[in-house]
UniProtKB/TrEMBL annotation:
<feature type="transmembrane region" description="Helical">
    <location>
        <begin position="257"/>
        <end position="279"/>
    </location>
</feature>
<keyword id="KW-0444">Lipid biosynthesis</keyword>
<keyword id="KW-1208">Phospholipid metabolism</keyword>
<comment type="pathway">
    <text>Phospholipid metabolism; CDP-diacylglycerol biosynthesis; CDP-diacylglycerol from sn-glycerol 3-phosphate: step 3/3.</text>
</comment>
<keyword id="KW-1003">Cell membrane</keyword>
<protein>
    <recommendedName>
        <fullName>Phosphatidate cytidylyltransferase</fullName>
        <ecNumber>2.7.7.41</ecNumber>
    </recommendedName>
</protein>
<feature type="transmembrane region" description="Helical">
    <location>
        <begin position="156"/>
        <end position="177"/>
    </location>
</feature>
<comment type="similarity">
    <text>Belongs to the CDS family.</text>
</comment>
<feature type="region of interest" description="Disordered">
    <location>
        <begin position="1"/>
        <end position="148"/>
    </location>
</feature>
<keyword id="KW-1133">Transmembrane helix</keyword>
<dbReference type="InterPro" id="IPR000374">
    <property type="entry name" value="PC_trans"/>
</dbReference>
<keyword id="KW-0472">Membrane</keyword>
<keyword id="KW-0594">Phospholipid biosynthesis</keyword>
<feature type="transmembrane region" description="Helical">
    <location>
        <begin position="350"/>
        <end position="370"/>
    </location>
</feature>
<feature type="transmembrane region" description="Helical">
    <location>
        <begin position="326"/>
        <end position="344"/>
    </location>
</feature>
<dbReference type="Pfam" id="PF01148">
    <property type="entry name" value="CTP_transf_1"/>
</dbReference>
<feature type="compositionally biased region" description="Acidic residues">
    <location>
        <begin position="119"/>
        <end position="131"/>
    </location>
</feature>
């Protein structure tokens, strides 16, 4: 009948993207935008949420003959699909009642809506979509889902590949060509200094980088050529050079810059150069390999146990993903590896490997926490993005830098105790 509105059930939809009756897939962003628009409309109008009313059919002209407006079977199917999708979207977006603090005067307090977060931000924290998007069936969404990360937040295949390559270079330098090890230590020191100096700019602290690169070359070379005494003198010389470079640029911000330079030189080139000091003694290559193996065992066993049964974080405000269960797994696994390595490789009692693993595990965990504290203080997630699955060089060397000097000291003490007793 002309002017009738009875036959319009299949010609309008509650979702704007399917107003024409053609059911198009809805992306996550479209679903989120639809929810946000509905929330804004509710807050402005103060009305309860209800499904939009169907649009009335256009009035037919009296001059035109009556046309059968009954929807076809295909239109009915599309409209039912659109209505189902709309109910899912709106039903998944039920808000929980929020507690609003009332002032003493009794006047209502306006609550500003929270800014929307992107899909990448939702996946960055937990690796899973939010509860509202999870309620939408996959067949109503389009686009390729983002790859999920492991529970530890890493791209595990890339992380394993990078670790194997770095370990292969170090082992080749240890047992095949010693200058390759010196070159690798020098390059890693230089990149690590660049990463930390670049990160300090987030704290508005400019650090002269030339003294850092000089220390990355001078300290490893001194450890190889002159031993621990030459390493100590070279360290003091590098600190003085860094101080002179900063003074020549002016006094504004000099204190923070100089302290940052001292921290970077001490943290990266100095600690890493202790690995080259181990080459002086007997079985030095095997001792370095044992120390590195303990560092790898600490990360591996801690990761496996933490992912499987980790529930109690050690320091939630610093590194929430490190658990006491993972630390226990690191300790037990490292002790087993250390006992075998010291007995079969270095011809020492098995208990020396247990003691060495005990201290190196504590040092590795401390190194992880130390870098996490620095990154949180600077407000960054990774030192850089040079290594897929790891972040930067410092994100890979954080535990090794603390393990190497302590392993050097403990190994010498153990060798002395075995010789005396």
């Amino acid at each position: 009948m002309p002017g009738s509105t009875e036959n319009t059930g299949g010609n309008a939809s509650a979702v704007p993207s399917v107003a024409s009756g053609n059911a198009q897939p809805m992306t996550r962003r479209e679903a989120r935008a639809l929810r946000e628009a509905q929330e804004k409309a509710e807050k402005r109008g103060g009305k309860k949420r209800s499904e939009p009313a169907q649009a009335p059919a256009p009035q037919a002209s009296q001059e035109q003959p009556a046309v059968d407006l009954a929807p076809s079977a295909e239109d009915k199917a599309k409209t039912a699909h659109a209505k189902q999708r709309t109910k899912i979207v709106f039903g998944a977006d039920k808000e929980q009642p929020k507690k609003v603090a009332q002032p003493a005067s009794g006047q209502p307090v306006s609550v500003q809506p929270e800014p929307p977060q992107s899909d990448s931000e939702d996946l960055a924290e937990t690796g899973e979509p939010d509860a509202q998007e999870a309620a939408i069936p996959p067949e109503l969404l389009i686009g390729n889902p983002e790859p999920k990360k492991s529970r530890a937040g890493r791209n595990l295949p890339a992380a394993i590949g990078v670790g194997v390559v770095l370990l292969g270079i170090v082992l080749a330098g240890l047992f095949l060509y010693e200058p390759l090890l010196v070159f690798a230590v020098t390059v890693l020191s230089g990149i690590g200094c660049w990463e930390v100096a670049r990160a300090t700019t987030h704290a508005k602290t400019a650090v002269p980088q030339l003294p850092l690169y000089l220390a990355s070359v001078l300290l490893p070379a001194s450890a190889v050529l002159g031993g621990v005494e030459a390493l100590g003198f070279s360290f003091v010389a590098c600190i003085l050079i860094a101080l002179l470079f900063r003074v020549m640029e002016g006094l504004k911000g000099a204190v923070a810059s100089v302290m940052s330079s001292v921290f970077i030189i001490t943290w990266v080139p100095l600690l890493l150069s202790f690995a080259l000091l181990m080459l002086e003694g007997d079985n030095g290559q095997w001792l370095i390999a044992t120390i590195l193996l303990l560092a790898v065992a600490n990360d591996t066993f801690g990761y496996i146990v933490g992912v499987l049964i980790g529930k109690h974080p050690m320091a939630p405000k610093i590194s929430p993903k490190k658990s006491w269960e993972g630390f226990s797994g690191s300790m037990i696994g490292s002790m087993a590896i250390g006992a075998c390595a010291m007995y079969f490789w270095l011809d020492m009692p098995w208990w020396t490997g247990v003691i060495l693993a005990f201290f190196t595990t504590i040092a590795a965990t401390t190194g992880d926490f130390a870098e996490s504290m620095v990154k949180r203080e600077l407000g960054i997630k990774d030192m850089s993005n040079l290594l897929p699955g790891h972040g930067g060089i410092m994100d890979r060397l954080d535990s090794v830098l603390f393990v190497i000097p302590l392993g050097y000291l403990i190994s010498h003490l153990l060798a002395w105790s075995v010789a005396v007793f």
